[in-house]
């Protein structure tokens, strides 16, 4: 028996081991390269970066033939190069570990994981490795990491492709298109979960398709910065800002900021899709409903009293602020946001048929989801409006923004329809889907309603919204605005979850469009305050954000359309540059370009153009956090990062268009960053 055991182990060992291998083979899936999500102007919003895991098969025939001559001749140089390149072990340590794995015939030795493309290119030229897989035993597995190059900007809308977690945003909605078709590979397991590929048995995966969105990264940056400024100033709980192109319904920007436990703000949830009691912004729907019904005209007088509250129908109604006069026109009541007036108008029009008010809300598409296409959008909630005391109570309450729930996106769609002359278009986020650069599907604007109200009603509603800005609740905010604005403020007490109406939490909002005479963009801003916040009115919190966003969009995208000036030829000054400030100033001075320098004493700067004027801005570089190197050339980016003890890998040529670590990320020990050039 002992003799037989020795014979099986020594003489027949290889045969039986190979037979064992054949019994432990199976096909595994090969993930396709995930598609990229782009902004409307072609900038990458979410993309996959390849990383390489390196293993070694020390049982490879080419590595062990002739008594392991090839391995013995290369192990010293191979160990030395590994030590010098990775700087994590000495050459002696590498040699000892490799020799041990070779002696044990390790079929799947883990050499290195997570190499960048540049590191992998260098690795392929190492001694032993450059002799090819069959002779070196090197096994390479390619994996990808999903990155959002612009960090926080629209991150919740774009979404994340995550392992062991549910995707969100566009990444989830278009997951089946983005992920492509998986391939297959035959592998042989060599111990535990370790395996080696079997050559010649592989089906290539089909790469995912690319998504071309309607988002504009500059508008997103503007919306995010304006919202962030107000959120920090007011210490608000969360906020959202939506920018929609009036004529088409394209969503150009969605900023969502929520406050974390550490007090910092991040894009954690898509608040633009969450339904809440809207407050006074819903008064636009009430106004159009009563005007279209014909029960009231925009210049009819309404008695609101001087006490700030009145009994209307079946309930007491209170105004947030006392009206300037006890009797005002319908237009003035809307401008000064009188709850009493809106309740009276709705009661006069629909007391006999409360359901009729609900039919107008249906016509305005406030009882169904918007159809934006993002998973996670919440459906609106409308009250039961029957002809009884409860139904009348709910109808009056809904007329000034309570007892019903809609999302900020619903509000944007409604106000955009008024800006569009009554034509309601469906908001959308995707322009087209492409495969290898070829368009396979294209999306056009979708008209939901050719006219949501009579032309006279739309005209009166627009005049009423302009009155809000010129004489009503937003007068002080837009007094110095260089273009006409139309909109409506909203301030609502919040009752949701554990929060009660008397807990002092408010929802401040402003919805509107600009320029009021020829609308280009519709904007909705919503901010939820912390309990008992000093600033909680829509005119205090939301309207200033609207104004900042609108003013910058007007300067960058609208003003030139409204003038008869000769169009300028686009040249290199329209592109963004960044780098060492003295170098930028020297170049500008040498070529005679006038500029506005707002960078003060900064060392690093960014060069941009606003309304064809060159602007030099400071590029703040803080200690121990990753700086923003986008727009820099390689010299400046590498110099800046390496002086912060960050190891840099570079792919491509030109200026930096993407960095694997977002600006503001804390720098850890042995930190590495990959820069993608254009």
Could you please describe the fold and organization of this structure?
There is one protein chain. This protein is of the alpha+beta class. Helix content is 32%, strand content 25%. The protein contains 20 helices and 29 strands. Strands 2, 3, 4, 5, 8, 17 and 18 form a 7-stranded mixed sheet that branches. The protein has a 6-stranded antiparallel sheet with strand order 11-10-9-22-21-20, sandwiched between helices. The termini are far apart. About 1% of the residues have low confidence.
Task: Note the gap between the termini.
Answer: 71 Å
Poorly predicted tracts of residues: 564-568
Q: Structural class of the secondary structure composition?
A: alpha+beta
Shape, please?
elongated
What does this entry show, briefly?
With 678 residues, the chain is of the alpha+beta class.
Question: Which SSEs are present, and which pair or pack?
Answer:
Blueprint: H1 2-11, H2 13-22, E1 25-30, E2 37-38, E3 44-56, H3 61-86, H4 91-103, E4 109-115, H5 117-123, H6 133-136, E5 138-147, H7 155-158, H8 169-173, H9 175-178, E6 183-191, E7 194-203, E8 210-213, H10 217-234, E9 238-245, E10 251-259, E11 265-266, H11 283-293, E12 301-303, E13 309-312, E14 315-318, E15 327-329, H12 330-335, H13 339-350, H14 354-363, H15 389-399, H16 408-419, E16 424-425, E17 430-435, E18 438-442, E19 447-449, H17 455-470, E20 486-493, E21 506-514, E22 521-528, H18 538-558, E23 577-580, H19 581-590, E24 596-597, E25 604-610, E26 613-618, H20 634-642, E27 647-651, E28 656-659, E29 672-677
Parallel strand pairs: 2-8, 24-26, 27-29
Antiparallel strand pairs: 1-6, 2-3, 3-4, 3-5, 6-7, 8-17, 9-10, 9-22, 10-11, 12-15, 13-14, 16-19, 17-18, 20-21, 21-22, 23-25, 25-26, 28-29
Helix pairs in contact: 3-4, 10-18, 11-13, 11-17, 13-14, 13-15
């Amino acid at each position: 028996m002992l003799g037989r055991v020795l014979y099986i182990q020594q003489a027949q060992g290889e045969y039986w081991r190979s037979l064992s291998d054949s019994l432990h083979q199976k096909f595994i899936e090969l993930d396709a390269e995930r598609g990229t999500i782009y902004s409307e102007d072609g900038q990458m919003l979410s993309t996959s970066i390849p990383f390489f895991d390196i293993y070694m098969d020390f049982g490879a025939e080419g590595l062990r033939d002739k008594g392991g001559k090839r391995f013995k001749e290369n192990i010293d140089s191979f160990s030395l190069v590994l030590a010098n390149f990775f700087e994590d072990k000495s050459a002696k340590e590498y040699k000892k570990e490799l020799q041990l794995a070779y002696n044990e015939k390790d079929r799947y030795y883990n050499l290195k994981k997570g190499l960048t493309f540049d590191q992998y290119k260098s690795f392929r030229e190492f001694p032993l490795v450059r002799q090819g897989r069959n002779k070196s035993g090197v096994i390479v597995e390619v994996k990808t990491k999903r990155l959002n190059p612009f960090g926080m900007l629209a991150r919740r809308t774009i979404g994340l492709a995550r392992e062991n977690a549910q995707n969100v945003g566009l990444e989830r909605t278009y997951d089946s298109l983005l992920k492509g078709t998986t391939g297959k590979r035959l592998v042989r397991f060599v111990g535990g979960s370790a395996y080696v590929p079997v050559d010649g048995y592989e089906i290539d995966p089909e790469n995912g398709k690319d998504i071309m969105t309607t988002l504009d990264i500059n508008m997103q940056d503007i919306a995010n910065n304006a919202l962030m400024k107000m959120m920090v100033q007011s210490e608000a709980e969360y906020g959202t800002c939506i920018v929609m192109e009036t004529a088409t319904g394209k969503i150009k920007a969605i900023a969502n900021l929520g406050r974390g436990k550490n007090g910092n703000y991040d894009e954690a949830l898509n608040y633009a899709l969450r339904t809440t009691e809207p407050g006074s912004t819903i008064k636009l729907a009430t106004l159009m409903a009563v005007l279209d019904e014909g029960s009231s005209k925009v210049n009819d007088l309404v008695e609101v009293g001087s006490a700030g509250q009145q009994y209307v129908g079946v309930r007491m109604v209170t105004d947030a602020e006392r009206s300037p006069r006890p009797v005002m026109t319908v237009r003035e009541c809307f401008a000064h946001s009188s709850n009493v007036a809106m309740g009276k108008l709705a009661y006069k029009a629909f007391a006999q048929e409360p359901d009729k008010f609900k039919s107008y809300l249906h016509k305005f598409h406030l009882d169904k989801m918007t159809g934006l296409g993002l998973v996670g959008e919440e459906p609106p909630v409308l009250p039961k409006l029957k002809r009884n005391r409860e139904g009348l109570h709910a109808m009056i309450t809904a007329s000034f923004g309570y007892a019903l729930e809609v999302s900020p996106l619903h509000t944007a769609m409604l106000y955009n329809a008024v800006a569009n002359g009554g034509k309601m278009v469906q908001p959308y986020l995707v322009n087209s889907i492409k495969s290898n650069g070829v368009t396979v599907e294209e999306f056009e604007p979708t008209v939901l309603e050719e006219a949501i109200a009579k032309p006279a009603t739309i005209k009166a509603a627009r005049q009423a919204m302009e009155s809000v800005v010129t004489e009503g609740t937003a007068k002080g905010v837009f007094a110095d605005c260089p273009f006409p604005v139309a909109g409506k403020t909203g301030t609502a007490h919040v009752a949701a979850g554990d929060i009660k109406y008397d807990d002092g939490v408010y929802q401040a909002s402003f919805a509107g469009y600009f320029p009021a005479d020829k609308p280009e963009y519709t904007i909705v801003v919503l901010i939820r305050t912390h309990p008992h916040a000093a600033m909680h009115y829509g005119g205090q919190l939301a309207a200033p954000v609207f104004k900042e966003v609108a003013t910058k969009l007007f300067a960058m995208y609208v003003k030139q359309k409204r003038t008869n000036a000769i169009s300028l030829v686009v040249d290199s000054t329209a592109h963004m540059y960044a780098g060492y400030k003295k170098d930028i100033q020297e170049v500008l001075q040498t070529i005679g370009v006038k500029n506005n320098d707002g960078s003060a004493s900064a060392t690093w700067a960014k060069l941009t153009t606003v309304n064809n004027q060159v602007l030099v801005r400071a590029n703040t570089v803080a200690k121990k956090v990753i700086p923003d190197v986008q727009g820099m050339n390689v010299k400046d980016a590498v110099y800046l990062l390496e002086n912060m003890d960050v190891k840099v890998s570079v792919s491509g040529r030109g200026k930096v268009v993407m960095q694997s670590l977002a600006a503001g990320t804390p720098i850890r020990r042995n930190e590495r960053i990959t820069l993608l050039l254009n």
